[in-house]
Structure to design on (237 residues):
């Protein structure tokens, strides 16, 4: 199981939100690329970068910081946040992203998802961000009537090579992941599932592995020291 450190960027800085609330921000670094180098040095094999301003406004807003991260490390970097057009995705891919993460567009523009999958096969993941099992979009600000499991199936049909499932109510809370909801996504689709939200200790990662996820994104727990990346990586030994 991949252990994937998260680097969320707002106003060019590495931050974490609480339950996706843009008014509840903790700043961890003014130099996100140094954070990326730290996680690489500690053994990470993949980084998850989110442009929070991009997710909120609908267009990439932190390309400079994202480019600095990608060029500061030798490991793959997957990038999401505000990627709702072909041009936006192309800009991120040209920076050197290993994979793009599509959220809102996967709900609102299936034709775009089809085109992205055709242009960059195997390099498009769909982020399914849910509250009470219902999909949220546009930086987690808008609720839909779509169920997470239904969107997961649709995403695969439209070319998603992986699905990233986040329980918004757990994100940034250091409580625990939503194992039941995550397991439902795993059982619904044939592509890799990456879990996100609520991871607070190594036991949580062990339980996520047991439900069949291929990776787990860890954010606040790494930044606060609740989890040491070395201990998390040791689960795979």
């Amino acid at each position: 199981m991949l252990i994937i450190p998260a680097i969320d960027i707002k106003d060019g800085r590495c931050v974490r939100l609480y339950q996706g609330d843009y008014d509840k921000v903790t700043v961890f670094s003014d130099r996100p690329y140094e954070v990326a180098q730290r996680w690489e040095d500690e053994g990470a094999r993949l980084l998850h970068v989110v442009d929070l301003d991009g997710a909120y406004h609908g267009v990439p807003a932190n390309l400079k910081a994202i480019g600095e991260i990608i060029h500061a490390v030798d490991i793959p970097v997957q990038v999401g946040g505000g990627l709702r057009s072909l041009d936006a995705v192309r800009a991120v891919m040209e920076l050197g992203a290993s994979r793009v993460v599509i959220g809102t567009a996967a709900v609102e523009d299936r034709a775009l998802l089809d085109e992205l999958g055709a242009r960059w096969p195997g390099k498009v993941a769909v982020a399914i961000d849910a509250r009470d099992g219902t999909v949220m979009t546009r930086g987690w600000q808008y609720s839909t009537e779509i169920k997470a499991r239904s969107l997961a199936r649709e995403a695969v049909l439209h070319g998603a090579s992986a699905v990233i499932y986040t329980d918004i109510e757990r994100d940034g809370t250091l409580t625990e992941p939503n194992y039941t909801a995550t397991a439902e996504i795993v059982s619904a689709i044939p592509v890799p599932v990456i879990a996100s939200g609520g991871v607070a200790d190594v036991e949580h990662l062990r339980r996520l592995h047991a439900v069949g996820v291929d990776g787990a994104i860890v954010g606040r727990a790494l930044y606060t020291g609740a989890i040491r990346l070395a201990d998390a990586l040791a689960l795979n030994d």
